[in-house]
Amino acid sequence: MSDISLWQKIKEDFSQPVLHDPALNSKIELFFNYPGVWALANYRIAHALHVRGFRTLARAIMGISQIITNMDIHPACTIGRRVFFDHAFGVVVGETAVIGDDVLIYQCVTLGGVSLERGVKRHPTVKNGSVIGSGAKILGDITIGENCRIGSNSVVVKSIPDDSTAVGVPARVIEKGRDKSPMAHNKLPDINKELFIYMFKRIKILEDAVLQSHHDQNVKVKDDELEAIYKSYLESVKE
Questions:
Q1: Helical axes 35-51 vs 55-69, angle rounded to 10°
Q2: What pLDDT tens digit does each residue of the chain (239 aa) get?
Q3: Which residues contact 189 (CB under 8 A, 6 or more apart)?
Q4: What residues does each domain of the chain span?
């Protein structure tokens, strides 16, 4: 995270919607339609105060910001440069969370803790260039690697390696390899749905096997088809 002035960081923050949101038609809209930018600007000021020991004032600023923007960002967390909170409503960033540079975070994302112990790192680290889909919950002192993609509504409780895509509850790595393009949420597989389909079909085949002869070719064909489905499922959850 480069060392530049507070006002340079805020200026960069206000430039991000132009780069990331095709819905932006005028810079005037920044004042009325981008709570994530304002929450981040408020955080920059509050964080500067917090590290200088004005912790109560910093918390007060972010409390007022939370009422206005509907985002809960603790002033003690660390947020890098060129971060963009798209839509932003419902975002929670905990006290010891660390967000790197060039990170894109959608609405209703939680960077939360799973411990009540004081004085330890309880919240996630999200490294440079990652994208966190809407509604994702990233919990505990874990690390989301560089250039990762976390699918919408995923629950991440284990660290994700660099250049990976993870989806599901709990989240699993379904793809590795750097991808600089934005995450296409509509193209991510529903791995839980695929597993349930496999289980239901497997039960049906076992029922048929009980009712029919073990030498029935139809059962063998269905079983072979199901094995192909299962292999496809395993490929989708490679870790």
A1: 170
A2: 457 889 999 999 998 988 888 888 888 888 888 999 999 999 999 999 999 999 999 999 999 999 999 999 999 999 999 999 999 999 999 999 999 999 999 999 999 999 888 889 999 999 999 999 999 999 999 999 999 999 999 999 999 999 999 998 899 898 776 655 556 665 666 666 666 777 777 787 777 777 665 555 666 677 777 777 777 766 766 55
A3: 167, 174, 236
A4: 6-183, 191-236
Q: Token pair for residue 9?
A: 């960081």
Largest CA distance in the chain: 78
Which residues make Cβ contacts (< 8 Å) with residue 29, sequence separation at least 6? Answer: none
* Exposure letters 13-37 (e unless 16+ CB within 10 A, then b): bbebbeeebeeeeeeeebeeebbbb
**Rounded to whole angstroms, what are the CA distances from 202 to 198, 208, 219, 238?**
6, 10, 11, 21
DSSP assignment of 166-199 equals: EETTTTEEEEES---SPP-GGGS--HHHHHHHHH
- CB neighbours of 192 closer than 8 A, spacing ≥ 6? 168, 169
Place of tokens 């960077």: 111
The HSE-up count of residue 106 (CA atoms within 13 Å, CB side) is 17
In this structure, which topology does domain 6-183 adopt according to CATH? Answer: UDP N-Acetylglucosamine Acyltransferase; domain 1 (2.160.10)
